[in-house]
Write a structure and sequence with these properties.
The model has no long low-confidence stretch (mean pLDDT about 90). The chain is α/β, with parallel strands linked by helices. Helix 8 links the parallel strand 5 and strand 6. Helix 1 packs parallel to helix 10, helix 4 packs across helix 6 and helix 5 crosses helix 6. About 50% of the residues lie in helices and about 15% in strands.
Amino acid sequence: MHPVLLLPGTLCTGAIFEHQIEALEPLAPSVEVVRFRHEHSIEEMAATVAQRIPADGAAAIAGFSMGGMVALALARLAPEKIARLALINSNHHGDRVERRARRLNQLAAASESDLPGLIERDYLPRYLHRQAPEHQALILEMARELGMECFRAQTAALAGRPDASTSLRALEYPTLILGSTEDQLCPPAVQFEMHRLVAHSDLVLLGGCGHFSTLERPEAVSRALQCWYLEKNLESKNLGSE
């Protein structure tokens, strides 16, 4: 059995994977969250992940949002390091011109003291389907913990990321693509497109949640990841809403 590496999204810590860690730890020899703080490109983040994998080994890698983009970069740069892959609420496209401009404007306007305010104002409405106070509080706390320098580095990485369609077509190991029906950032159409590009992929769409599926539907995400890790068929490719 391979170790599991969990790759978080923008301004996220391992806290977003709390339920999934508990679900995977009894199955895998180890479960580790790879934190990104100072890397200024998706490729630098992929190099950070590669350093966590033994020179002659491979890992089962699950990436959430930005973490999925990092996983695809690793698949392009060092495909032998991946035993199986899960892309959670992620997407394979390069940053759109208008989205890149918006990121840079937000970065210019943001300050250390106002970072939680920026996240609350510009990001939370699109992160969650149901604005549960406990989920809002966790997302804001992670942003405070990682801080402005991390936000600057990750914004630059996202703005400069390449299109990963070619990487998807080249994948030769089992791949889980997990998305949400209410995800405004990585919508179902993107998940279907990635599924079509990967020959050996399963697609799961969760109802009743937005971008942060690991928080809004933790049990369903954990169940899907357990099946992915154990190479079991999922009972349903659309796990519905709660």
